[in-house]
TrEMBL record:
<dbReference type="GO" id="GO:0005737">
    <property type="term" value="C:cytoplasm"/>
</dbReference>
<dbReference type="Pfam" id="PF08028">
    <property type="entry name" value="Acyl-CoA_dh_2"/>
</dbReference>
<feature type="domain" description="Acyl-CoA dehydrogenase/oxidase N-terminal">
    <location>
        <begin position="28"/>
        <end position="123"/>
    </location>
</feature>
<keyword id="KW-0285">Flavoprotein</keyword>
<dbReference type="Pfam" id="PF02771">
    <property type="entry name" value="Acyl-CoA_dh_N"/>
</dbReference>
<dbReference type="InterPro" id="IPR036250">
    <property type="entry name" value="AcylCo_DH-like_C"/>
</dbReference>
<comment type="pathway">
    <text>Sulfur metabolism; dibenzothiophene degradation.</text>
</comment>
<dbReference type="InterPro" id="IPR009100">
    <property type="entry name" value="AcylCoA_DH/oxidase_NM_dom_sf"/>
</dbReference>
<dbReference type="GO" id="GO:0008470">
    <property type="term" value="F:3-methylbutanoyl-CoA dehydrogenase activity"/>
</dbReference>
<dbReference type="GO" id="GO:0050660">
    <property type="term" value="F:flavin adenine dinucleotide binding"/>
</dbReference>
<dbReference type="InterPro" id="IPR013786">
    <property type="entry name" value="AcylCoA_DH/ox_N"/>
</dbReference>
<dbReference type="GO" id="GO:0004497">
    <property type="term" value="F:monooxygenase activity"/>
</dbReference>
<keyword id="KW-0288">FMN</keyword>
<feature type="domain" description="Acyl-CoA dehydrogenase C-terminal">
    <location>
        <begin position="241"/>
        <end position="378"/>
    </location>
</feature>
<dbReference type="Pfam" id="PF02770">
    <property type="entry name" value="Acyl-CoA_dh_M"/>
</dbReference>
<dbReference type="InterPro" id="IPR013107">
    <property type="entry name" value="Acyl-CoA_DH_C"/>
</dbReference>
<dbReference type="InterPro" id="IPR037069">
    <property type="entry name" value="AcylCoA_DH/ox_N_sf"/>
</dbReference>
Amino acid sequence: MTRISDGWGSGPSARYDEIAAHFRPIFERIAQTAIERDQERRLPFREVEWLREAGFGGLRIPKAYGGSELTLPELFALLIELSAADPNITNIFRSHQGFTEDLLNAPHDQWRDEWLSRLGGGEMIGSGFSELAGAKVGDYATTIVTDGDGYRLNGEKFYTTGSIYADWINLGAVDGSGEPIAALVPTSAAGVEILDDWDGFGQALSGSGTARFKDVRLESFHIKPNSARFPYTTAFFQLVHLASLAGIGRAAAGELSRHVGARARIYPRGNGAASAEDPQVLEVVGRVRGPAYAAGAIVLNVATALQRSYEANLAGVDPTETDIHLLAEIETSQSVTVISKLILEATTVLFDALGASAAKRATALDRHWRNARTITSHNPRIYHDRVVGEFAVSGKKPVAVGYRKIITPFSTTSEVAELGGV
């Protein structure tokens, strides 16, 4: 069944349904046990492995390296579908997909080729940027210092989303001089400890807790040639969250429809012989489904802005002579509050179409709101609204929290986002 026949619209390309057909059976299997995992707090190691074996980690990787070479709109369309099955797993792959963009935008060299081959072969990356030591986002107490012919890593990270499932942690730190340095840290290395201590009421299975590093030995190969990130970094990571919200909306709409269709009990003030025939109940179903549709359409539209940014960077366009990267940020920020409100309201109003039985734990309908509320708590909406207002009124360009001025392949200076978060 295609997305068109589901009523969610066409995919972002003529080949999209062919691409998605490979993953949809896996998404369905993931969805079948999503409620059980949420209730039992069972981490989805098995489900992540299904996706890894199917090549989900190589979606954007060039075919020459074993990947699928998808466009960004195609990637985000798949992330919406995965999120409808389980948004925890979308979040698990968030850092991995971000590191993939680092590679795709990096200078062509042996280091880049090696990591593209590793990711195309199925290896997986987790996140290691955020810290809780009272520092601003992007400032680090974690250190990587030289140690003989190698390096030594010490520190502690939080919001290490996906790392408990991954082979490597993409990590930011400072060197002995206090300068930013980035590395890929093997999760199996001696001195690495990853804890499942994220205790949020939503996104509980994303593995977003603590990672500790005590005298971890690193080799030159583990150190990134430079710590630059791609020019649409902030927009990309935020759009993954928005894709998750769109998927949550679709899942909520689907489950509500099934509950209404199966509901036998009606109220005395009802307007039909069954809930499925009650126009007021059906109106609520529409009020949930419509926002889910709108959220998905917005995500795919913004993804085209990111694709333009990617193509400009790949072509070597000087970032100081174009607003294309800025506009990707603006389009993303303009979407944040809209999508957040749509899905938060949809995951609340759905209960108006059902009775008290909808509050039973067995239905787990509350997980949609809990996951949506948790996701919308990252990168607060209030700041996106202000950024959009400043741009609209005065043309002021947004500056992402946690940026650092460093050398990039295509310019003398660049603002580079180093983002954490669940």
